[in-house]
Amino acid sequence: MSNDTTLNSERLMLDSLTSLRFLAAMAIVVYHIQGSYGVPIIPADVFNLEQGVSFFFILSGFILFYTHSNLQGSADIVDFFVARIARIWPAPARGHDALDVAWLD
């Protein structure tokens, strides 16, 4: 195994940043459900949950760029976008299906 491959595989491990991304996603969830389901309303001066969205998107963009910075050529870029769409598309499609079923009932 070459040093380049070893370096690349070590580079892809961003567990601590992924953990921060999870915390940002949880801040977004808590922001949206506060006042419901027994979650108290948290004053903005204690913990500003509105910043969770910005932090999540900035951190996600950095992680995507960092892990896929070795894309070379249009074929790699097309493969990247196909993989992203294949990963993201099923969730909205299932949501649309659920709305169709609910609408028909």
What does this structure look like?
- There is one protein chain.
- With 105 residues, this protein is mainly alpha-helical.
- The protein has two domains: 1-70; 71-105.
- The chain contains five helices and no strands.
- Helix 2 runs antiparallel to helix 3 (51-67).
- It is flat and about 50 Å long.
Q: Can you tell me the overall shape?
A: flat
Rg result:
19 Å
Structure annotation, total helices:
5
Gap from first CA to last CA: 58 Å
Mean pLDDT: 79
Task: Return the string of H and E elements.
Answer: HHHHH
Characterize the largest beta sheet: strand count, sense, and whether it forms a barrel.
Answer: none
Strand residue content? under 5%
Task: Count the beta strands.
Answer: 0
Return the structural class: mainly alpha
Number of domains: 2
Poorly predicted regions are 1-10
Helix content: over 70%
